[in-house]
Design brief:
The complex is a heterodimer. By secondary structure, chain A is α+β, with helices and mostly antiparallel strands. A six-stranded mixed barrel of chain A has the order 2-3-9-6-8-7. Chain A has a six-stranded mixed barrel with strand order 13-15-20-17-19-18. In chain A, β4 and β5 form a beta hairpin. Chain B has a single domain, classed as 3-Layer(aba) Sandwich (Rossmann fold), CATH 3.40.50.300. Helix content of chain B is 35%, strand content 28%. Chain B has seven helices and ten strands. Chain B has helices at 44-51, 74-84, 100-110, 116-126, 142-155, 172-189, 200-204; strands at 2-13, 16-28, 33-38, 59-64, 67-68, 85-88, 160-164, 192-197, 208-213, 216-218. In chain B, strands 6-7-8-3-9-10 form a six-stranded mixed β-sheet. In chain B, α6 (172-189) links the parallel β7 and β8 (192-197). In chain B, α4 crosses α5. The longest helix of chain B is centred in the C-terminal third of the chain and has 18 residues, at 172-189. Classes of the chains: A alpha+beta, B alpha/beta. At the A-B interface, α13, α20 and α24 of A face α1, α2 and α3 of B.
């Protein structure tokens, strides 16, 4: 042991281990920092998402909930708040207006903060707590509508309140979704005094809970079996389907970046280990001559690697911690909530990565040192099995690849994304490797015909064809990561953002009477506001599926058969829906059934287990309506357009009393137009979604920035891998160029051939990168993020050009020493 | 053809300045064959490197064909070597990525000779490797590699040939064959040969022998 450690110490002093240590450290650093960063960010995003609920979990009910259901929260030490929400007239002097009253206990909000202001002209700022008893905080619009100032008196029912603040934002404005009319927020203690909440009033009771994750989970588990149909338990997932999906995508992006880090790390370690081994051939040969057995040498390798690994993992973990800390510090201003501490998992993942990389990529290469022939002492050209591609080495690499895959999978917990990245890279590597192999063989013929610059460049590439191909694949991979990161940053994120374009409808109008449709359209047109279409809406229940009562065969989890649904009819197929089965009526002349047709949303059709041709029965008012399922549509709920589970063909629902619904985008500066609409059409209800959209957009922005930072880290490591791979071939280049200089070759010949070599390598790697990133983009867009695939022509130009410029630049910079050192110095070292 | 005046070479080491060559005055006529003999570390290879302009001198002058190469920069010295000088090394120093033929073509191409290929084939045939043209160095034996190196060294008919322990890596028999070849070609082309060796038998083949001892040249071996 002592001998091995002494040898290691010598190696370390002579700098031989630096590159290997650095590679493993970088591997651990990348993985640890990304993992830490991703975990904390994810935790932060989740907690921020919970702010949308103003709590970790919310229980909603149309009646007060039995006290025993709340007891579970008390025993679990959860924080509690209560909200009662209902529409009511609010009076001030002679004015009155139908408002949305929210009475909240003092603990509200449990998560997030209210924003309010004391001055009409000053933007709202976060405030602690909620209105004190006797106070009311009002929507600015309500001040206008009631024609009052702050400090004036307003009445809700029989209770007077002082208009204390202008309420500008509620954390949970999104989750209440359909808040009727302008908001007035009062303290729950005052609710009794108003006398407006009577049995039968349209009231929502919301119970907010927050606390330790385990306690919350245990409460939910305890509570669920006791809930009645009227109760609704809202966690992160079911309160905000759009948000949950966005979070899932964000997680996907970050983990993808993490997986790429793992790949890069392995490449770096493999290259460093190869360089280390090559440089140790002589030492090992001498040691063998002096009597070292392969077994002793194997022992030495294992001990050296163990020490190297330990040092590297510790250094990597420490640096990783600093790196994520620095990153998060920059992020802090974008993240409104304090970041939760990370668990130990990221460190374990980082250390695990270091171990796996070392075992899979460093050990096999260094293990081959045992096979170095002692004859090398006499004949330097003798290498070891590591030179060739023995079956054993291949077997080791296969194991290594499997280990990396397993690690990536463990790391991302997402088999599809891991497989896409891993096999996409592998496939590209093999394809491009094969092409490169073939092309290198062909240009050799060309090379012998051409001048010496070209020949030297080609010969350098072709020397050990396998090595060149490997280098090309490595360069290509690094470039591919670069391109993918640009692609994600510019293209995918933009396409993602496009799903919530700036003019996404942010206001819904419902209860539009048929006679109001035309005048309303005119009013909106007058203000240059475009609606997402005016849809008639009839309320009805789905009662029978193929003559069988729906509630007898469909469980409670499909609540669409247990409640009233909004039904509509349309001549034309909705703009952003996709027809997945059946036919739309305009081209359906062969309706074989004598019943009218209905079109159903895909997910609901799946849940109901119905398909085209099935008979559905609805009850509208007191009448039954039999229809045939004519088509199935796929639609996206987060477009903020009116979307319907059921669309009937025209002529079926016209006899039932209908109201209309529409949505439109209202810019902030035209916000007061809502007052005009409400004055002119007092019976119309407005749902204001702009707050919720603002929150979603903010979060998308933050996630985008987070991804950019993660990719920045990957990008830097990609450049490091690039430099390391040039460094790996530097000894050989030094020797060759020393010989060339000795033979009298001018510097421009050497530089020229170096340039040409790197440019050829860069072009090849760039092409591979373009192919790989195009495929990855396809996979990500269509499979992982469920977007439409778009071709990226710029990749095919940017890839090769970037590859040539970058690799030539980095390559020349890294090999500058080659032409600077006097030839004798190099030849001396090598003679 | 070759002349040095008060040639000094020193390097900085951890223990201070180490003077390797302590003032060498040497003159070698055109067509002359000279052996520089000395123990390991005596400075003979350093002298050879300086004569060929492979490294910078500390002080003194080195004249090749009348030109003081110490006044030339690295680029000019390389250009001079391409026109004037050939090399044979102990460890062959072939470019591993080039075939035997391409290795021999290289100096001819550096001189922009249009007949590079023909000349290279001619010299490879001359050293008996006409059947090995497309082989790479790793596919050749040590003796064959050195023969390629000799073909390369003579292919552009240099005025001066520097040889550094040309048989050092070869067995006796192969070494003898190589030496025969070297001197044969040298004679045919009337090349000035400077040969560094510690092999007295080999040195005997040269017209003149100089002993390098502790950084100084003398006409006879050191009394020690």
């Amino acid at each position: 042991m002592k001998t091995e450690l002494r040898l290691l110490q010598r190696d370390a002093r002579s700098g031989e281990l630096t590159l290997l240590c650095a590679a493993i450290t970088v591997a651990v650093l990348i993985v640890t920092s990304i993992s830490l960063f991703a975990e904390r960010l994810q935790k932060a995003l989740v907690s921020e998402a919970k702010v949308f609920l103003a709590a970790d979990v919310v229980l909603q009910s149309p009646q007060p909930v039995a006290e025993k259901l709340l007891l579970g929260a008390v025993t679990r030490d959860l924080q509690r708040a209560e909200i009662v929400q209902f529409p009511s007239m609010v009076f001030a002097g002679d004015e009155m207006f139908l408002s949305s009253v929210k009475a909240a206990s003092s603990a509200y909000p449990l998560l997030g903060q209210l924003e309010a202001t004391d001055d009409v002209n000053v933007a709202g700022v976060p405030v602690v707590g909620s209105p004190a008893p006797g106070e009311a905080w009002l929507d600015q619009r309500l001040l206008h509508l009631l024609n009052i100032q702050l400090g004036d008196e307003v009445w809700v029912g029989e209770q007077a309140f002082t208009a204390a603040k202008i309420l500008t934002r509620e954390p949970d404005s999104g989750s209440s979704y359909f808040s009727l009319g302008p908001r007035i927020l009062i303290n729950l203690e005052d609710l009794g005094g108003t006398g407006v909440v009577q049995p039968g009033s349209r009231v929502f009771y919301r119970y907010l809970f927050s606390g330790e994750e385990a306690a919350i989970d245990s409460y939910i588990e305890w509570l669920k079996p006791q809930l009645k149909k009227r109760h609704r338990l809202m966690g992160l997932d079911d309160s905000q389907p759009g948000l949950a999906q966005s979070l899932e995508r964000a997680e996907g992006f970050l983990l993808l970046a993490g997986s790429l880090g793992v790949l890069l790390a392995s490449v770096a370690v493999a290259m460093a280990a190869r360089r280390y081994s090559l440089r140790h051939y002589d030492n090992v040969a001498v040691m063998k001559t002096l009597g070292s057995t392969p077994q002793q040498l194997g022992r030495m390798v294992v001990i050296h690697l163990t020490v190297v690994l330990t040092v590297s993992v510790l250094a990597g973990a420490l640096l990783g911690w600093f790196a994520q800390y620095a990153f998060l510090n920059i992020m802090q201003e974008w993240l409104p909530v304090a970041l939760p501490q990370a668990s130990i998992k990221p460190f374990l993942v980082g250390a695990g990565t270091g171990v796996v990389c070392t075992l899979a990529f460093a050990l096999p290469m260094m293990w081959q040192l045992r096979t170095v022939s002692p004859l090398r002492v006499l004949r330097r050209e003798l290498g070891s099995d590591a030179d060739g591609n023995t079956d054993k080495t291949r077997y080791f690499y296969l194991l290594g690849a499997l280990a990396i895959f397993a690690l990536m999978w463990f790391y991302s917990q997402h088999l599809l994304i891991t497989s896409l990245v891993f096999f996409g890279t592998l496939f590209c590597g093999l394809v491009v490797g094969g092409i490169a192999w073939f092309v290198l063989g062909s240009i050799r013929v060309l090379g012998t015909q051409a001048g010496s610059v070209w020949r030297l460049a080609v010969a350098n590439l072709q020397r050990g064809q396998l090595q060149s191909v490997l280098q090309l694949v490595v360069f290509g991979l690094a470039l591919m990561l670069l391109l993918i990161s640009v692609l994600i940053r510019t293209s995918i994120v933009r396409e993602w953002e496009l799903q919530l374009p700036p003019d996404t409808p942010n206001h819904f109008l419902i209860n539009i009477a048929p006679y109001q449709v035309e005048p309303l359209k005119e009013l909106l047109a007058e203000h240059e506001l475009k609606t997402a279409g005016m849809y008639p809406m009839v309320r009805g229940r789905l009662t029978h599926l193929n003559d069988i009562e729906a509630t007898t065969i469909i469980g409670e989890e499909v609540d669409e058969v247990y409640r009233e649904l909004n039904l509509t009819w349309s001549e034309t197929f909705p703009e952003d829906n996709v027809l997945v089965a059946g036919q739309w009526w305009d081209d359906n002349s062969n309706n074989s059934s004598d019943r009218p047709l209905v079109s159903v949303e895909q997910e609901l059709a799946d849940n109901l287990g119905v398909t085209v041709g099935d008979k559905l029965t609805f009850t509208i008012g007191d009448k039954k309506l039999d229809v045939t399922l004519g088509s199935i549509r796929e639609l996206r709920w987060d477009t903020m357009r009116p979307n319907f589970y059921f669309i009937f063909e025209p002529g079926v629902l016209e006899n039932y009393s209908a109201t209309h619904i529409t949505s439109f985008y209202l810019p902030q500066e035209k916000k007061l137009l809502i007052n005009d609409i409400l004055r002119q059409f007092p019976t119309i209800s407005i749902f204001e979604l702009d707050e919720m959209l603002y929150q979603i957009k903010t979060m998308v922005d933050q996630v985008t920035q987070a991804i950019e930072l993660v990719l920045g880290l990957i990008l830097i490591s990609g450049a490091l891998v690039l430099i390391a791979s040039v460094q790996a071939s530097i000894d050989q280049r030094m020797q060759e160029n020393a010989i060339l200089r000795t033979l009298g070759a001018p510097r421009r010949l050497i530089l020229g051939s170096l340039c040409l070599e790197f440019i050829l390598l860069g072009l090849g790697a760039g092409l591979m990168a373009a192919l790989g990133s195009e495929l990855t983009a396809w996979g990500l867009q269509t499979q992982a993020f469920r977007m439409e695939y778009t071709f990226h022509p710029w990749l095919w130009l940017a890839g090769p050009v970037l590859g040539a410029v970058l690799i030539c630049g980095l390559g020349l910079a890294a090999s500058y020493r080659v032409v600077r050192v006097p030839p004798l110095v190099v030849l001396r070292e090598l003679m | 053809m070759i002349r040095t005046t008060s040639l000094i070479k020193s390097v900085n080491t951890l223990d201070g300045e180490l003077v390797i060559l302590k003032g060498i005055d040497l003159e070698i006529k055109a067509g002359e064959t000279v052996a520089i003999i000395g123990a390991s570390g005596s400075g003979k290879s350093t002298l050879l490197g300086l004569l060929a302009g492979l490294d910078d001198v500390s002080s003194g002058g080195v004249f090749l064909n009348g030109t003081d190469i110490t006044t030339l920069d690295e680029e000019q010295r390389a250009s001079l070597r391409a026109d004037l000088v050939g090399f044979v090394f102990q460890s062959f120093q072939l470019l591993p990525s080039l075939s035997a033929l391409e290795n021999v073509m290289l100096p001819l191409e550096l001189q922009r000779r249009p007949d590079a290929r023909e000349q290279a084939v001619k010299y490879l045939s001359r050293v008996g490797l006409e059947h090995r043209l497309t082989h790479y160095p790793r596919q050749l034996s040590g003796g064959e590699q050195q023969r390629v190196a000799i073909a390369r060294a003579f292919s552009n008919q240099p005025k001066i040939l520097f040889a550094d322990e040309p048989t050092g890596n070869l067995d006796t028999k192969t070494g003898e064959q190589i030496i025969e070849l070297l001197f044969e070609l040298n004679e045919q082309l009337n090349t000035t040969l400077v040969l560094v060796t510690h092999d007295l038998k080999l040195a005997e083949r040269c017209e003149r022998r100089l002993w390098m001892n502790d950084g100084l040249l003398s006409m006879q071996p050191d009394a020690d």
